[in-house]
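Please, structure for the following, as tokens.
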Amino acid sequence: MRDMRRKLAIMLILGGAALPLALVSLAYACGVLATVHLNRSAVASGASVSGFGNNYSTKPKASAVVLRFNSRTGRALWSGAPDQNGNIAPRFTAPRVRPGYYVVDATQTSATGTPVAGTPGRAVLRIGNPHRHGAAAAWPIGTPGSGTGSYATSSGSGIAGLAGSGVLVGSLSGVLLAGGALLLLGDRRRGQHSVPAF
């Protein structure tokens, strides 16, 4: 029984130490992601939309950043080079399409033609009122963004999501470490007070 408790304690301590390392490894593997944020998440067809984005390549041989409509290869809405800090400030006209939810992809390629690491940045744009005229949504209803005047969220916030889950992982890790330590201390105390068998 004592060996089983000791093995369990060691497994809890190792698990508690491994959880934060796994989170750090995952965050490191994700790298820096490109973002794009739109000043309005819902517009009428033909309306002006502006925004900003971060973390695009500033290497001399990298392409300009291109905002594309509803896919990585969709129609170009805007094109421009990022500034020296990798930021973009696009402005475009919302396409005349059926009302619905659409995605705006901010793409960039390297000198070899492959996508730059961390791209595309993505944002959701609702054009028209998708609930009128029985229009089908091109993007799931309930997408991020809080409407006119606020910046729609983008998929480039993966690391922020990992940071938020760090609190949960840290708490779980602490519980595992404490549980393992308590089991080991309990065994040690029992060992000191036990009467040897003759």
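Strands lie at 35-38, 42-43, 48-54, 65-69, 76-80, 91-93, 100-107, 121-127. Helices lie at 2-30, 158-193.
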